[in-house]
Specification:
Layout lengths: L4 E3 L5 E5 L4 E7 L2 E15 L2 E5 L3 E5 L5 E16 L12 E4 L2 H11 L8 H15 L3 E2 L2 E3 L4 H12 L7 H8 L3 H12 L3 H18 L4 H7 L5 H12 L9
Parallel strand pairs: 1-3
Antiparallel strand pairs: 2-7, 3-7, 4-5, 4-6, 4-7, 5-10, 6-8, 8-9
Helix pairs in contact: 1-2, 4-5, 7-8
């Protein structure tokens, strides 16, 4: 069993990671805001994964065992908050929208000395927390199933997000009816099969875009029927086109 590193205080700092670099499973006694100013960050826990481009941050509650992976050259900004200070009252990892102002506040705060308790840094922190309270939560969580049967189906799709088989066709491969699988998606993951597959494809698309894969190829590799269909779903989810992420 892999030992989980325990770091009581969640650091506040800026850190750079090369594409593909990982931070192994660990936990803090503090809450942490994790923001990628450049590149795309994936955060994984035992119950799922969250992927965030530069317009999103990830809230990681105190005590959560989590690992990081960088996609593209990552500029990581970490903000630690004591366990008693939870401005969003969130008990599970959550993706948050990052406004242009919040982005600049996070970058400025993480680039100053952590032990600086001066009035300027105190004011900066207060404004950051005010802006954080207005952040919109984003439904960008890709849950991991606990059901072995459903895990098999999800692993098939993870291995090839462009797999366009219906739930009935996937059910034949794993020996289950589409009705059984549909019920498991609802009870185990809290979403429908199409919703889960779309989330998977969006997560995979963000990773490919961070690695400078052209938009047309991303659409194809993630299973969209056309580039325009992919762009439409991406825009509705993230508020901008995937071209903003491409090289």
């Amino acid at each position: 069993m892999t030992k989980v590193r325990h770091t009581p205080v969640a650091p506040t700092r800026t850190q750079r990671l090369a594409s593909g670099a990982e931070i192994d499973a660990h936990r803090h006694d503090d809450h942490q805001i994790v923001y990628a100013g450049r590149g795309v960050l994936a955060v994984t826990t035992s119950v799922g994964s969250w992927v965030a481009p530069a317009t999103r941050a990830i809230w990681v509650p105190a005590g959560t065992v989590h690992a990081h992976q960088a996609h593209g050259d990552l500029e990581l900004h970490l903000v630690g908050l004591p366990a008693w200070e939870n401005p969003l009252n969130l008990g599970t990892p959550t993706v948050l929208a990052v406004s242009p102002l919040l982005r600049e506040l996070i970058i400025a705060f993480t680039r100053t000395e952590e032990d600086d308790d001066g009035p300027k840094r105190t004011r900066l922190r207060a404004v950051l927390l005010d802006q954080l309270q207005t952040s919109v939560q984003q439904p960008l969580h890709l849950p991991t199933p606990s059901s072995p049967l459903l895990r098999t189906v999800c692993d098939l799709l993870r291995s090839d997000p462009s797999d366009n088989r219906t739930l009935t066709e996937l059910g034949r491969e794993v020996g289950a009816s589409d009705r059984t699988l549909s019920r498991l998606f609802s009870t185990d993951l809290g979403m429908t099969f199409p919703q889960w597959r779309t989330q998977l494809r969006l997560h995979h698309a963000l990773i490919l875009l961070a690695e400078k894969v052209p938009v047309t190829r991303v659409a194809n590799q993630c299973g969209w029927s056309s580039t325009s269909a992919f762009i439409d779903v991406f825009r509705r989810t993230f508020g901008h086109t995937p071209g903003k992420h491409s090289g």
